[in-house]
Automatic annotation (TrEMBL):
Family, as annotated: Belongs to the BLOC1S1 family.
Superkingdom per UniProt: Eukaryota
BP terms from Gene Ontology: endosomal transport
Keywords for this protein: Coiled coil
One Pfam family, short name: GCN5L1
UniProt-recorded name of the protein: Biogenesis of lysosome-related organelles complex 1 subunit 1
The organism of origin for this protein: Cherax quadricarinatus
Length: 132
């Protein structure tokens, strides 16, 4: 009887050890699956963050390039405006010069008309004019 009790006890211990080993393997497998699921979930977030960062870097580079182009265009526009302003000043100077020349020419024309009239009056009224 004692030996059968010992055998029965050993059998139950063996069953419990096997059951415990099976549960230990299940727990290891479950924790491994949980770990993989968590890592996969985190990797999705990390991958999304990486893609967002990559897109932001690309857009920042594009923005910097656009800003450089805009700065270059602005410098060209400022140069053109400065040139236009200088040209307008020159036109103002030319207009002033032309007005002065026109005034001088009117003075000369008036003086010539006056001299011509005086000469005409002198030749028709005095009788002794020069015959041209």
């Amino acid at each position: 009887m004692l030996s059968s009790m010992v055998k029965e006890h050993q059998g139950r211990q063996q069953s419990r050890k096997e059951e415990q080993e099976r549960r230990r393997k299940e727990a290891i497998l479950a924790s491994s699956n949980l770990t993989h699921a968590l890592v996969d979930h985190l990797n999705v977030g990390v991958a999304q963050a990486y893609l967002n960062q990559k897109r932001l870097d690309s857009e920042a580079s594009q923005l910097e390039q656009n800003a450089t182009n805009f700065q270059r265009q602005t410098s060209q526009w400022l140069s053109l405006i400065s040139s236009f302003t200088d040209s307008m000043k020159e036109v103002g100077h030319v207009q002033n010069w032309a007005t002065t020349i026109e005034s001088d020419m009117q003075t000369i024309a008036t003086a010539l008309e006056y001299a011509y009239k005086v000469e005409q009056q002198g030749s028709s009224g005095g009788g002794g004019g020069s015959a041209a």
